[in-house]
Amino acid sequence: MIEQRIYRPSKSPWSSPLHVVPKKNGAFRVCGDYRRLNSFTTPDRYPIPRVKEFTHQLSDKTIFSTIDLN
Q1: Reduced to 3 states, what is the DSSP secondary structure of residue 54?
Q2: Per the UniProt record, which residue ranges are transmembrane (predicted)?
């Protein structure tokens, strides 16, 4: 895959190891191991709520929305 220029090696401290795993149908799945990278990131201060929580919060609200696609 390196010769085909699909990916290239990296020595960056922010890189994560990739593993190419064959699927049952013969295709390949690229899997990343982001555990080391996750240890350097900080969680969102205000994470996006789950849909169920969000719809519960809006259940007694009236929402007006417009969008201009021009």
Answers
A1: helix
A2: none
